[in-house]
Amino acid sequence: MTKRIIQIDLNRVEGDLDFQLELDGNKVVDARCIGSMYRGFEQIMIGRKPKDSLVITPRICGICGTAQLNAAVLALEQVGGIPVPPAAIRIRNLCLMAETVQSDLRQSFLFFTPDFCHPKYAARSFYQQARAAFQPFQGWVYRDALEHSRHTVEIIALFGGQWPHSSYMLPGGVTSPADSRHIIDSLSILNKLTRWFEKSVIGADLDTWLALASADEFFSWLESKETHANSAIGLLTLMSRSVGLHHVGFGTPHMLSYGAYDDPDDAEACSAQPKRLFKAGFLNGDTGTIEPFEQAEITEHVRYSWFQPYPGGRHPFQGQTIPNYQPYSDRYTWCKAPRYQDKVVQTGPLADALIDGEPLIRSLYQTEGGNAWLRQFARLRRTARLLQTMRETLHQLAAHPNEPHMIAPATQDIPDGEGFGLVTAARGALGHWLQVTDGAVSRYQVVTPTAWNASPKDSEGRHGHWESSLLGLTVDDPDDPVEIGHIIRSHDPCLVCTVHVLDSGKRTTLWP
Q1: What pTM was estimated for this model as a whole?
Q2: How confident is the model at residue 501 (pLDDT cuts 50, 70, 90)?
Q3: CATH: 3.40.190.10, 3.40.50.970, 3.40.630.30, 1.10.645.10. Which one for 3-509?
């Protein structure tokens, strides 16, 4: 067979993402994930006052600024040993959940499902249904998802004053209390969103949907009523499995979750590893066991990245981000290569669900493995859980109307020291590592979810997760490899967060 190299510009993702694939015939035998934008926020923060991070880092991304803000404020609170009241934790959780729901709906129905409208599938039985539901700007699911996701982030604006790029989280709490008007308006938005999600996305009420606990139950449920098969998630499932997405896109078996949403009952503990509503952990793919998560086990490699080199991997507290563009070397991306316990890992809603013990996702994983369809399915399963948790959070805020929203720190200055803030963003594990010296930021490192997933090879030559998920894949048409889009979009790429601009030259753009 003849070997060839193709360069792909992957559209319908957040940011600029290229892939360089080596094909032997139609089979992928090597892959390079190229983050073609340089971010530089780590340099921007050096020498600034620590609290500047609350204004600057939410601008790392226009889709997950709330998560960036949350990670930044947690790092500051850890440096200063600053407690936070339960009401503030609830408000932070609520806004982060709203941002995640908005992102998940848009990723699922504006980015992922339009690929089923590709002309390649014109002869498939589902094709007309796909176009009716998912055709960009025309399909009924596409239009509804655009509308309802737009209103979801109004909840953040109610509590935070604006979205995106809010700065309402401060060390010790949030800027405003949860007054009754904000709670009522948020419940109204949530009620409307939930009704649409139940009717159109899952074809059932949330309680019935979340009660499904095994693969057998899910597939029996899917076939039991016409409304289920015609729901958005039913269509997504039938189409995904028709084209074989449950057989591809596995990548690394190691999975990482920082846990999600601080427990308000543990809010004032000032712990480096606070209790979370959804569990943290590391799923060791070699043993199948879930191990406690230790942030000290994180390292970043730059052997194949366009940064000033250093040997091996470094923990973010010892890391550096000094650009060193070398276009004619074997380095190929602005993304670093994070590793956990020296292993290639993946993060995101599938990893979060497995580590938290979500029964349906675990059952499907045990049956078929961590494939591209299950990764996407887990994202919408999470949406249902978050809709319920958001409602509970709003009722908790209403039940405690006089709780303080801020515990004023003893001093407004952040002392010298180091701290980290870890949150679960829409795409998975997000961390900020901060060091303060003589009252100014001396080191700031950000490791995003997409950095974990889209990492290049590391110092040992091991491919990152996305790269390994493509190795061995057979594509029908190397000039239009739609299969690549299915697999990579199932991770909800966000290169905007991970790298910021360099044009890498001539390449193939995937449809449309």
Answers
A1: 0.93
A2: very low
A3: 1.10.645.10
